[in-house]
Design the sequence.
């Protein structure tokens, strides 16, 4: 079954007469005794339905968590590595979790150095946040060291890390998977069902189960993941090409461009080059700030992956890596008409240029 079909067909109720087509939202805490669950901190029907869809998409065993940070923390706690290889620039939340665990030695790996990484666990983002480096997952997973891939920017529509050799895939479900900027959830998908069971135990003990409404909303969002992601990716391609020729733009970072340092890896590894792109304007930090304050259709906001287009100057946050250029704008391209998106970016670039 193709991935576009899985997003629609998986995780449905049994098709008995008069059954609903969709899994109803299940508001409950205590359950009648005699079953396998008993209490919804242990498990919940709406979470299971979402897990069926994501597990089928990734080709593994999915576990839904109350947030992406809960999923990241659970994976690190359960695998309990003494050392972790990780990218120079990656999600600041993951870096904070690692920094808080002083007993874990961190090994920084450039994109082409993973095969020789001397660490007990390899933590990959591909593409990375926010500098959009693409890591060769197959090469990085070629030894006996467990590999975890944060595939939030790619989604299973673009790549399936378990099929490329990873043991675990993590997602911020808050982003593209749910797709409407209205919930906080996370997930981990494991090749090994026993590891997934250990993550479920961790979720139960730490109280990180997803709420029923959030799980239901996420499942509804997943039904349109394929069409949303592909439409936004098409928009990103057009914008990346146009921004590359604009005098107000110094650098465009999008793996689909031929001048991207990881273009060859991206085109080989990803079925779709995703909707995230980063831009450094000619005027640097001040121009980036002016652009973020001048857009009308694009919203200056953190997070990403919704149907609406957002942009953000990442270094406005004190916790962002100092390796990120102060002028970098991270763009999460939405599904609006691309001509409207381009017109708004163009006028914001012009406004930033005139303000210098």
Sequence:
């Amino acid at each position: 079954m193709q991935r576009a079909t899985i997003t629609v067909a998986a995780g449905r109720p049994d098709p008995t007469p008069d059954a609903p087509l969709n899994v109803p939202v299940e508001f409950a805490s205590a359950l009648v005794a005699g079953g396998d669950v008993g209490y919804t901190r242990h498990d919940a029907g709406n979470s299971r339905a979402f897990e069926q869809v994501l597990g089928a998409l990734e080709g593994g065993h999915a576990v839904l968590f109350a947030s992406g940070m809960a999923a990241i923390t659970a994976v690190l706690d359960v695998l309990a590595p003494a050392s972790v290889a990780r990218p120079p620039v990656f999600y600041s939340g993951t870096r904070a979790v690692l920094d808080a665990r002083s007993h874990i030695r961190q090994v920084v790996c450039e994109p082409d150095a993973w095969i020789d990484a001397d660490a007990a666990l390899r933590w990959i983002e591909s593409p990375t946040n926010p500098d959009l480096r693409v890591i060769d997952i197959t090469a990085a997973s070629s030894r006996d060291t467990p590999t975890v891939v944060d595939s939030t920017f790619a989604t299973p529509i673009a790549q399936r890390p378990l099929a490329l050799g990873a043991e675990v895939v993590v997602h911020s479900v808050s982003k593209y998977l749910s797709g409407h900027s209205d919930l906080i959830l996370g997930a981990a998908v494991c090749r090994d069902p026993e590891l997934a069971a250990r993550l479920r135990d961790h979720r139960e003990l730490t109280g990180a189960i997803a709420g029923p409404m959030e799980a239901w909303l996420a499942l509804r969002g997943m039904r349109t993941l394929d069409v949303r992601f592909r439409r936004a990716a098409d928009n990103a391609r057009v914008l990346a090409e146009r921004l590359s020729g604009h005098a107000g733009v110094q650098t465009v970072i999008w793996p689909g461009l031929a001048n991207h340092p990881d273009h060859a890896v991206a085109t080989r590894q990803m079925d779709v080059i995703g909707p995230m792109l980063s831009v450094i304007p000619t005027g640097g930090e001040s121009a980036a700030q002016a652009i973020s304050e001048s857009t009308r259709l694009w919203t200056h906001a953190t997070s990403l992956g919704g149907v609406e287009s957002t942009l953000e100057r990442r270094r406005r946050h004190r916790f962002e890596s100092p390796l990120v250029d102060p002028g970098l704008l991270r763009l999460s391209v939405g599904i609006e008409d691309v001509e409207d998106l381009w017109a708004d970016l163009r006028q914001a670039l012009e406004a930033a240029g005139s303000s210098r």
In short: Residues 225-354 form a domain with the Aspartate Aminotransferase, domain 1 fold (CATH 3.90.1150.10). The chain has two domains: 3-222, 225-354. The radius of gyration is 20 Å. DSSP finds twelve helices and twelve strands in the chain.
